[in-house]
Specification:
Structural class: mainly alpha
Number of strands: 14
CATH class of the largest domain: Mainly Alpha
Distance between the termini: 14 Å
Radius of gyration: 20 Å
Number of domains: 2
CATH topology of the largest domain: Glycosyltransferase
Shape: globular
Largest sheet: 3 strands, antiparallel
Strand content: 5-15%
Strand order of the largest sheet: 3-4-5
Length: 390
Amino acid sequence: MDFGDLARVHRDLLLQDVVPFWIRHSPDRECGGLFTFLDEDGSVYGTDKPIWLQGRIAWLFARLCNAVEKREEWLELSRHGLEFLRRHGYDDDGRMFFLTTRDGRPLRKRRYVFSETFAAIAFAEYAKATGDAEAARMAAQTFDTAYRYHTTPGLLEPKEIPSTRPSKGHAMPMILLATANILREVDPRPIYDEVIDRSVREVFDHFCHPEFEALLETVGPNGEFIDTPEGRTMNPGHAIETSWFIMDIGRRRNDPALIEGGLRILDWMLRKGWDDRYGGILYFRDVLDRPSTQYEWDMKLWWPHTEALVACSMAHELTGDERWMEWYRKVHEWAFAHFPDPKHGEWYGYLHRDGTVSHRLKGNGWKGPFHLGRSALLCWRTFERLAERG
């Protein structure tokens, strides 16, 4: 397929498959918010509401209004999710819950701030689409709360006893740079570029280990290699997602060093993550090729593949280097051969190593339309631009 064909494939995936599936099945018109526990045909098999997915879905539909066209149906669905967050998502301390009942009663609150980061981008995107000043205020306030809890020692309970083996995870600098890159569009404060700068430096200086040609998920406080199963863990999809976040910031800033750094991560993690036996991207790898302790280490999940499609198409657009299109086609062919459900629509999320379906669900507490919808939108626009270049 040429660039025009690829643009149409991603446009149709987004507008004729993913978006209609979630519009049909996700809105809860009785209690508010959005169902995410959806069986393969879209039927609801669980009614609890993951707060971080409410934010992700609300962001996606507001983003469609900003990037495609302002359809009232999309705007209403984004508003529908945000109203649930306003009413039920926040605890008295300003932090957010992770999971509520169908009618919004809190079930779980985690020591992470991922609910907050996704709510922040959702309010920001909605504010951009509508000019809603209250949504912009909510975005900034939610980001500030998340960042304060992340950077203030003792506010969040540590995962492990820090005095025994201090460590930190890749997830926070990764999500902070992505969140700040969206909020800066609706809030002029310099904090967002400051957070981006700090987060990018932390990724490059601490989590990237050139001696292994890898980005590690867990390191010591100053990037030290920890020779344990956790310290040796690579999550290729997570690192590939970070690579395109950094490339995108480099493009915005016209900074070749950032683009090159993102390309280096992408190159490392495609090679580390690709399954030479069955194809597709492995979920976890041990950087020293020792046994991975995660039970799902060799499964093929939808989202690492969608992130690789974004990263490879972006890398080709930025460099013109054909090897990135070779990687793109490799990932595309495997993903489109295994994840789509031609009968009911959308993608299966969880496959066995050989590509057979493991879980028939289309949504749960982790899977919604966010990764696939964002990937389809970004790849559509990238290939559209490439096709226009001729």
